[in-house]
Amino acid sequence: MASGALARDTLRAPARARSRGGRLPRGTVKHAVLIVIAVLIAYPFYRPTLWPHEIHLENYVTAWNAAPWSRYFVNTIFISIVNTLGELVTAVLAAYALARMDFKGKAVIFGIFLATYMIPDEATLIPNFVLMSRRYLNLADTYQVQILPFLATAFSIFLLRQFFLSVPNELADAARIDGAGHLRFLWSIVLPISVPALITVALVSFLGSWNAFLWPLIVTNHPEVRPVQVGLNAFRQEAGANYNLLMAASTFVIAPIVVLYLVAQRYLVQGVARTGIRG
Predict the structure, then answer these.
(1) What span, in angstroms and rounded, lies between the C-alpha atoms of 234 and 66?
(2) 3-state secondary structure 191-256
């Protein structure tokens, strides 16, 4: 009986092999259709040629001389650095308190932080604008108005809190035995092993400050304090249909961010990957 079943399977095997061999591999048709669609969608961006016949580097010089780009870049670098440093300080202290210290209402405070993260930025534009106006703080059209609202963010606090939760409790016990307090433990042990998370927070904060457009556009009026994205928008209105100058200006505006991301990409991945979901 067993030998008869084996013989039947042996005879059927070549037929199954022939049927499989006559068909295309699974998913080939689907991927072929997707490739054709992708080519059709991308074609207008490469028309009429895939590579330019001439490269006009003088467009970069013309675009740079047509607007106060040096001032825009100085403003943006200053605002981005101050925002990044301030956000790191506030995020580290708040995240450590929420992760390593015990006090009443900690869960409620952390829940409030997460709730603020769910509020869209557009919903806070008018309250922040009124607060910074002449009626209250009188900071319109200054560097401070582009810095103060962004010195603390729920995302940075949440990310660092999750990372600090992964620090072994044995390290905290050993530091406590040696007489170290919270600040000593934070500075000497927690921060050195949290470099990937700190770089991630710094990179996200710097990118957000560099790409800020709507808030600076609302609260600034003079080029002396405006960042590069608002300057690019003003240049777009002046250049009009000169797309060669617009593309040149856009290139040297985004180039520093691309370089920064390529340099810090490894730390960004490590910081997000090691954060985990504890707590």
Answers:
(1) 11
(2) CHHHHHHHHHHHHHHHHHHHCCCHHHHHHCCCCCCCCHHHHHHHHHHHHCCCHHHHHHHHHHHHHH
Asked whether residue 5 is assigned to any structural domain, the reply reads: no
Is 13 a member of any domain?
A: no
More confident residue, 241 or 189: 189
Q: What is the pTM of this model?
A: 0.76
The domain that holds 186 is classified in CATH as: 1.10.3720.10
pLDDT given for residue 22 in this prediction: 54
Number of domains in the chain: 1
- Residue 2 domain flag: no
Percent of the chain with pLDDT over 90: 30
Region 162-186: mean pLDDT is: 88
- Domain, as residue range, for 206: 58-275
